[in-house]
């Protein structure tokens, strides 16, 4: 796989006015989302829900790629069309979550490290054959009393860099996601400082592992006050703080940055992205890779009638894609 091909995929992922839909919930995570709206977590319901999302008419107008879970990349529509074919036919690049989730980091209470490196080379080769052209690995950084530690940040950066190098070796664009978690009572300045240290560490590790930045996408968290801080930051403050930390840590050779929504409201996630792009141009396209902020309204509608609400739910997915696609251009109006 040439660097040019990786770079081409990475650029297509952040094409103007387009972003990513994250539908890569593990079975344990989708169980929580389904339970929240009273849907049984059966394999058929998971399949039907992912068919609803991926089958949204004209989704490719605003969505460049979708991140799938291992089960989903092997599934098909009710009519028997593999999801990967449905996606490619609609101009949507198949992506795959390849980490095995965060586990407690021994010796570091309250902190986690993402696992999944063992056997990753073979898994990536299989996913490539199944049609995936990019992958995702999420590291989780918690903020609390005396955390994150340097040990936790380093362990997660090291894992992200090893994953990214393996992805590029196997022809997949690595999406590297160091998520600084919103939960906590920390203020926005603390989130800024932690995000800065985390991103510096990550790009240092990527460099040490010879990861080609031109074929890499960063999935970043925004700089926000902790959910339990009692602090409310304005849209402009969040946009300015996030831009400042990215500009001071992310090399300009990176083809693009996409954001996670992380529990923000749909409206906030869109407004923050729009405000950042209004303040452009920036060294990289800034777009979205939202999970909950793309799906939650549709999931709620679908849960009310799994048979008859499919089209209505798809209209909601399309509307969220359009709003976020416009925000990726700084053209969204609330
Ligand atoms: P949220 O947008 O719901 O945070 O999910 C994005 C994601 O893929 C987290 O890894």
From TrEMBL:
Enzyme class name: lyase
Record GO terms (molecular function): fructose-bisphosphate aldolase activity
Keyword Lyase: yes
Lyase found in the keyword field: yes
This protein's UniProt keywords: Glycolysis, Lyase
Enzyme Commission numbers on file: 4.1.2.13
Catalytic activity, reaction form: beta-D-fructose 1,6-bisphosphate = D-glyceraldehyde 3-phosphate + dihydroxyacetone phosphate
Pfam assignment, any one: Glycolytic
Pathway connected to this protein: Carbohydrate degradation; glycolysis; D-glyceraldehyde 3-phosphate and glycerone phosphate from D-glucose: step 4/4
Domain of life: Bacteria
The family this protein is said to belong to: Belongs to the class I fructose-bisphosphate aldolase family.
Protein known as: Fructose-bisphosphate aldolase
Species of origin: Lysobacter koreensis
Lineage: Bacteria, Pseudomonadati, Pseudomonadota, Gammaproteobacteria, Lysobacterales
